[in-house]
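Shall we go through a protein fold together, starting from nothing but its sequence? Label the sequence line and the structure token line clearly, so we can match residues to local backbone shapes. Would you write everything just below, so we can both look at the same thing?
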Amino acid sequence: MNAITSSLNRPQLKPQIEAPGVPTSMESLNVPVVVLENLLLKHLAHEVKADYLELSRLLGLSTHLIEELMQSLRKRSLIEVYQKNHNDLQLHQSSSKNHVLFGLSSAGMQEAEIAFLKDAYIGPAPVSLADYSHIVKLQDIKKNNINREHIENALRGIYGSEYMVPILGPALNSGRALLLYGHAGTGKSFVAAQLLNAFDTSVYIPYAVYTSGNIVKVFSELHHKRVDNNETAQTIHFNQQYDRRWTLCERPNIQVGGELTLEMLEVNHSEHNRVWLAPLQMLANNGLLIIDDLGRQAISVDALLNRWIVPMEYSIDHLVLPSGQQASIPFVLTLAFSTNLNPLEIGDPAFLRRLGYKVEFFPLLEKDYFDLIENVCRSNNIESSPAALRFLLSLHESHGVPFYPCIPKDVVGICRDIISFEERESVITNTVLEAAWRLYFTSDGMGG
């Protein structure tokens, strides 16, 4: 699984909605105080000692909210106060914000251990499920209509993609699921990876969401790309920042292939600790989730497709939480399936109806194919000749191989390797091309 972060054709981004305001009271956080207290204890156990500013940065809360939490913990003798000193830190009873560090008492360490046993999440304070759902719905892709120019920009440089523009534009605006199908090597995965470049808006993603006694980690460095530095902004003015429990990101663009399992679509913990992680569809909210190579997963196609029927129909997904309770989360994303299979082989008519848009991919036309080859040769600093291109055409004709867009990059790459090994002049000759063709294709004409 990987997040697609190519900057190819990416437009200048602007937030789709106004930023979430900075919370100024415990009530406005919409999260139980005990959850925040436990999180604060875990941070202090991790940091050993920290001041108000550091704790404010770690939890993404204003210093006066941190102070309010601290007062409760100090009354229960869970916190000790240390005077800042150039030589050492000594126990001190001062409450001056500017000259003290805070650490855990022995009782506080015990409470922190209990908190870690409940869940190992440590990071900015979570947002409530209600607040998360509200923001996700406001950032729905369907609220940001795209036009022909947007699609053409996203597909710029993709040879033979002109016929897709009037198809993919309405499909993306609909917000409905897509089925991209066609022979292997026709560019389905690559085109799918570029679709989000048609949108010029960024979205707010929470670091974590709290619901029914559980903190679920949402923001992922692997899947989300920040576009500002609000979390490290050095300002105390609320009107110069937004709620630091959120971060502004490019729209998610997540692709998963044969490694997909049903467990990845549920709340699960990481291998090394009990940090509960959001499922793929939650990570992809307000963006794109590509299920590549449909039919090659370890789970059956029927089981996978049945998992999506209700979310696709009602834009709501129901998750079972670690506590055993169920939570309903928004399913506000564009879901794209890519497959080499015939659509009639992958699901019943009821499921195909819910997919909404089916886009077939074809081999390139001869002109587009040879334009692509020349472009690949230039990028590899290799010369091609009209004679070599005619010879390549004869290879396609004699072996009955269509003009798949994956072939130029692969075959020219093999030509480059042969030229480098044999220390030849950087020119593709018939001899080199024939050798590369034999290495790339099996005896039955299938690509490597």
The longest strand covers residues 201-206.
